[in-house]
Amino acid sequence: MDERTENLQMWRELGLDVDRHCDLLNLLRSVYPDIYMSQENRPPAMAYFDSVVAEIHGDRVRELLEHKARGGKVIGTFCVYVPDELIYAAGAVPIGLCGGAQFSIPDAEAVLPRNLCPLIKSFVGFKLSKLCPYFESCDLLVGETTCDGKKKTWEILADYAPVHVMELPHRKGEMERELWLSEIRALRSRIEELTGNAITPETLAGGIRTANAKRLALSRLHETRRSSPLPISGKDALLVSQIAFYDDAERFTKMVNTLAEQCEQRVAEGVGVVSADAPRLVVSGCPMAIPNWKLHHVVESAGAVIVGEETCTGTRYFENLTDETRTTLEDQMKAIADRYLKTNCACFTPNEGRIEQIIQLARSTNSKGVVYYSLQFCHTYNLEAVRVEKALRDAGIPMLKVEDDYSMEDIGQLQTRVEAFLEQIA
Q1: How far apart are CA 388 and CA 197, in angstroms?
Q2: pLDDT at site 1
Q3: What is the mean pLDDT of residues 318-343?
């Protein structure tokens, strides 16, 4: 049996709508070469990440099903606040399920309001229409209360799959820290119940090391983007971060370190993917799940380069490590709670830390400006843009605010706005 036939059989056994699913994959394969393979002088190690996308619903899904056949569990997540450490410690596999495609949104709009952010509609649409094999492979979905849209969506999604919801506090005081620690404990209990495996200090120490190793590899790659000329495009760096949410952790970490080593060598030799005088920009705002590459593609097609992302598919994912020195289970749980509560999201108030972080990232990467990216109907990030823009103006850093969805209908308008912004900062 050839690989294509095996995949079709696997998708049918998962209950996918195979015809529409093939249409989705054909659409992805039609746009990926123009966006990614057309780039010149890419680091050779990017071939691995291209291969992961080429088999996005094939090889990795097969690995998950083999894991389940051995008695393992798969846990779907939607946010960087869900602790991977606990999932690894119980012998389970975490899979990021955020949606970045317009394809599934009409299916979600049969149930959800139209004036809801496309990220929520995209992942709900994938579940309702049975277009995503990762969704169908999950034994549990873990949601969180980062926004009103999500916390009500979990109630709807619970009609279709088992869901555990974590209450994320929106302040960072001592009382909120205790609340968050209690949510970490509750998740540990739910995961232990699901897997039948007790999380011990030894297994949790291993889970912490696995999660930290991945973060260190991504941070190492990110550091090379501070150089000029840039050793890797913003599009490629974004793709690597997106793949982090579903690839095998140890294999992914090894391949990112290989890529980072190549980029470090390029820096030492002065080799770049674009000229050293290309305008450097930072992107800040909402996450960009596969296959949401539109903004990066437009910016870099216009002659600029993106050198960092203050997003959940950027620095928020890897910027802090969990303390590996704790030895008791309770102290390890506290270390996990502390690590995740350091992450800056627009849902927090007050939120000076995030604003300072955007300014610091722009300065440390020698960027000429910030593109503030917000999904349509994402009130949290749209509202925070007001204070971010004022702070950037006071710091002398130009900002372009982009409010967008996943469709391609506005790409001409987006190109015009980006080009005008580049002329402004030239």
Answers
A1: 44
A2: 64
A3: 97
pTM for the whole structure: 0.96
Distance CA 203, CA 88 (A): 8
Q: Measured over all CA atoms, what is the biggest interatomic distance in the chain, rounded to whole angstroms?
A: 63
Residue 333 is predicted with a pLDDT of 98
Q: 3-state SS of the chain?
A: CCHHHHHHHHHHHCCCCHHHHHHHHHHHHHHHHHHHHCCCCCCCCHHHHHHHHHCCCCHHHHHHHHHHHCCCCEEEECCCCCCHHHHHHCCCEEEECCCCCCCCHHHHCCCCCCCCCHHHHHHHHHHHCCCCHHHHHCCEEEEECCCHHHHHHHHHHCCCCCEEEECCCCCCCHHHHHHHHHHHHHHHHHHHHHHCCCCCHHHHHHHHHHHHHHHHHHHHHHHHCCCCCCCCCHHHHHHHHHHCCCCCHHHHHHHHHHHHHHHHHHHHHCCCCCCCCCCEEEEEECCCCCCCCHHHHHHHHCCCEEEEEECCCCHHHHCCCCCCCCCCHHHHHHHHHHHHHCCCCCCCCCCHHHHHHHHHHHHHCCCCEEEEEEECCCHHHHHHHHHHHHHHHHCCCCEEEEEECCCCCCHHHHHHHHHHHHHHHC
Question: In the chain, what percentage of residues exceed pLDDT 70?
Answer: 100
User: For residue 87, which phi and psi values (nearest 5 degrees)?
Assistant: -65, -45
Cβ within 8 Å of residue 301, ≥6 positions away: 415
Cβ atoms of 282 and 361 closer than 8 Å: yes
Q: How many domains does the chain contain in total?
A: 1
Q: Angle at which helices 18-32 and 3-13 pack, to 10 degrees?
A: 130
pLDDT level of residue 2 (50, 70, 90 thresholds): confident
Q: How confident is the model at residue 4 (pLDDT cuts 50, 70, 90)?
A: confident
Tokens of 178: 């205790």
Q: State which residues form the domain around 370.
A: 3-425
Per-residue pLDDT, averaged over 325-335, amounts to 97
pLDDT at 147 over 70: yes
pLDDT, averaged across the chain: 96
Q: Return d(Cα 201, Cα 294) in angstroms, integer.
A: 43
Task: Provide the token pair at 207.
Answer: 């889970």
Distance of CA 256 to the CA centre of its chain: 15
